[in-house]
Amino acid sequence: MSAPTALITGGTSGIGKATAELLHSRGHRVMVTGVSGHADTGLPEDVTVVRADARSLPDIDGAVEQARRQFGSLDLLFLNAGISRPGPIESTDEAAFDALFDINVKGTFFTLQKALPLLGEGASVVFTVGAGEGIGAAMTAAKGALLPLMRSLALELAPRRIRVNAVSPGMIDTPVYRRMGVSRDMLESWAHDVPLGRVGAPADIAEAVAFLASDAAGYITGDNLVVSGGIGVHSRP
């Protein structure tokens, strides 16, 4: 039996990298994409790194074609590439708005479209959705578009026995926070808001993705797995 295969977008750092490392350790053949391409990612040598900008359809085509040549088919497509541009409506310009939708929504949609011929019966697709509310109207809108898209695709692809789910990370210590100017100390100071008493690690999300991709989740599709340490539990019905 051949090793399972995975393509992870936005896989050179943070949650994507942690997922690549976890799957690789469990015997998957893994390919990741990232805008940095073949820069030193610290990933295992036999994890293939492809330079691809999620907003570029030619880049997406190139990455999927390389996956086809190298793997032949995909067991997991983890649609993790995304950006954060928090801020109020007054400070959101057209370039920031377009980037949010081009990378988080358009890139996700077309990567799945292009990779669909490689996904056979039993394959799994996982979206990274994440937080939306409270981080700015444009970012909320871009993040909010992903859940209904995921659920629609889960219905559309169910007859082909392709499962489509999402994972929604809570407060996870990733490089995104550094780019937003949030230090590790600041992040740790927010841990008192988390019922489990700590900020999450990328490995926490990686485990959730691995579960959704596994046979153990074989009867799960169209669902959103929230991995937040309990944030928001009090507000759920």
Structure report:
- It is built from seven helices and seven strands; from the N terminus they run βαββαβαβαβαααβ.
- It has 237 residues and is α/β, with parallel strands linked by helices.
- Strands 3-2-1-4-5-6-7 form a seven-stranded parallel beta sheet, with helices on both faces.
- β4, α3 and β5 form a beta-alpha-beta unit.
- The model has no long low-confidence stretch (mean pLDDT 91).
Alpha carbon gap, first and last residue: 44 Å
Poorly predicted spans: none
- Provide the spatial order of strands within the biggest beta sheet: 3-2-1-4-5-6-7
Beta-strand content estimate: 15-25%
CATH C-level category: Alpha Beta
CATH topology descriptor: Rossmann fold
Q: Bin the helical content.
A: 25-40%
The radius of gyration computed from the alpha-carbon positions, rounded to a whole number of angstroms, is: 17 Å
Pattern of helices and strands: EHEEHEHEHEHHHE
Structural class: alpha/beta
Pfam family, one: adh_short_C2
Protein name: SDR family oxidoreductase
Keywords: Oxidoreductase
Family: Belongs to the short-chain dehydrogenases/reductases (SDR) family.
